[in-house]
Specification:
The chain is of the alpha+beta class. The protein has 2 domains: 18-87 and 163-169, SH3 type barrels (Roll), CATH 2.30.30; 91-162, no CATH class. Helix content is 34%, strand content 24%. It is built from 3 helices and 7 strands. It has helices spanning 2-13, 91-112, 135-158, and strands at residues 28-29, 35-39, 48-55, 59-63, 70-74, 80-88, 162-169. Strands 1-7-6-2-3-4-5 form a 7-stranded mixed beta sheet, with no helix packed on it. The longest helix has 24 residues, at 135-158. It is flat and about 90 Å long. The chain starts with a helix and ends with a strand.
Length: 173
């Protein structure tokens, strides 16, 4: 009984975040200088990427590329708005997938393509034979080679940068 009352007292003393202190998940308020991706009938079916040059209660000025000119869009015409959270690469993920695919393919090929050595001469002709002597060891050697090759290729594929977009809300302070 004493344990339960102590436990209840400790639980009541722990701070709890109020609902008013939690920011809405996934929506970010845009401001001047934000990199956005916007969809509006003015732009056609394609989403346009640019930087907010000006922002008022009823319009948004979008600057695209290196030009200093901006296109005004009415906020009531905006059908979708996303804010950039930065760009990142997927090198580690690509390397892992490359390693797994390369090692698996190498092991399967090494196991199926193995041939017994045909050297019967015990003299100098077979002295240089260093390598796998069974299907299992050939699969292991091939898996190591395929894994290294896949690791390099997967890392190269993962080097391309991708941008992360989250939903945004137009609003002035």
């Amino acid at each position: 009984m004493r344990f339960m009352s102590t436990l209840c007292a400790v639980l009541l003393m722990t701070p709890v975040t109020g609902f008013s202190q939690i920011s809405p998940p996934g929506e970010i308020r845009v401001d001047t200088g934000s990199r956005i991706r916007v969809s509006a009938p003015v732009f056609g079916p394609e989403k346009q990427v640019g930087t907010i040059a000006s922002l008022t209660r009823d319009s948004l000025g979008l600057r695209q590329g290196p030009s200093t000119a901006s296109r005004l869009v009415a906020t009531s015409d905006i059908t979708a708005l996303e804010v950039s959270r930065g760009s990142h690469t997927r090198k580690a993920k690509g390397a892992l997938w490359g390693l797994l695919i390369g090692a698996g393919s190498g092991a399967i090929l090494g196991y199926t393509l193995y041939k017994e050595p045909t050297c019967t001469n015990q003299g100098f002709g077979c002295i240089a034979w260093i390598g796998p002597d069974s299907k299992g060891s050939n699969a292991a050697f091939s898996a190591a080679g395929g894994g290294i090759l896949g690791l390099v290729i997967g890392t190269l594929f993962g080097m391309s940068a991708t941008e992360t977009w989250v939903p945004g809300v137009v609003g002035t302070r």
